[in-house]
Amino acid sequence: MPDVRILDKGCRGCTLCVDICPVKVFAFDEATDLALVQHQEDCIGCLSCVYLCPSQCIAVSDVELVRPFHRIEENVAFVEQFLQTQSAARVLTEEELDMAYREVGILSNAFAEAVTEILGRGHKSVGRRAGAVAAAHLPEMYEETGINSLLRRMRDRFGSSFDFQYTFSDGADIDLSVSPCGLLQAVRNAGETPGDSDLCLLFHEYWVGLISSFTGIQHSYRMLGAGEKCRMKITPLDQV
């Protein structure tokens, strides 16, 4: 049976776990303004609470995590054959893709602004958590055995939108440069400055969240420049 725990010092009483849990494991204690685990025996281990908690103060153990291996790129052709259908990317026209890109840019900027307005400096945890959630849907990355092969795999996967190059410095530090960045035009269309916009800040945390999840080691980062080419240094926390 899954073991569910809440770190009281981290809980901010937002009730998101109470609202999202499909089997009502959590309750809200009016006296303390904190969430509490009330029906642990009903937990199904979906981890919705863990992914959603803005404070990352919920832990669920004794649950088996199953990665969606059907999402591995090498298996797409097999899945299409099995389903007798093509992926959407192969049937959309260039005009439809362009319209979708512009619409996603507008919605992404609006989302980033809303997150920052609501959470303030806490928006970083949202970007980092988004990277961790996304990593679970890219199971092929976990097959890589070293950081160099992992980054090559990430470049193959994300290169069409975020074409990046990388080198290593100071031991385990990753010096990463992105050009072009898929967010650049969306940020400029919104009248924002590349590197300083809410969308950029969320994406930087998202990217580091991906690498942290794939390697199992938490990383930090600092920007070295932004614009036509964005540069960042990514450092394992045990090296800070």
Structure notes:
This protein has 240 residues and is an alpha+beta fold. The protein folds into two domains: 3-61, Alpha-Beta Plaits; 93-239, Trafficking protein particle complex subunit 3 (Muramoyl-pentapeptide Carboxypeptidase, domain 2, 2-Layer Sandwich), CATH 3.30.1380.20. The protein is 39% helix and 20% strand. It is built from eight helices and eight strands; from the N terminus they run βαββαβααααββααββ. The strands form three sheets. The chain has a four-stranded antiparallel beta sheet with strand order 5-6-8-7, covered by helices on one side. Strands 1-4 form a two-stranded antiparallel sheet. Strands 2-3 form a two-stranded antiparallel sheet. The model has no long low-confidence stretch (mean pLDDT 85).
Order of helices and strands: EHEEHEHHHHEEHHEE
Query: How many distinct beta strands?
Result: 8
The largest β sheet comes out as: 4 strands, antiparallel
CATH superfamily of the largest domain, called what? Trafficking protein particle complex subunit 3
List the total number of helices. 8
Q: How far apart are the termini?
A: 38 Å
**What class, by secondary structure content?**
alpha+beta
- Strand portion, in percent? 15-25%
**What is the name of the CATH topology of the largest domain?**
Muramoyl-pentapeptide Carboxypeptidase, domain 2
- State the name of the first-level CATH class of the largest domain: Alpha Beta
State the helical fraction: 25-40%
Number of domains: 2
Tell the overall outline.
globular
Work out the radius of gyration: 20 Å
Average pLDDT value? 85
CATH architecture of the largest domain: 2-Layer Sandwich
Query: Unreliable runs, pLDDT <50, ≥5 residues?
Result: none
Give the strand line-up of the largest sheet.
Answer: 5-6-8-7
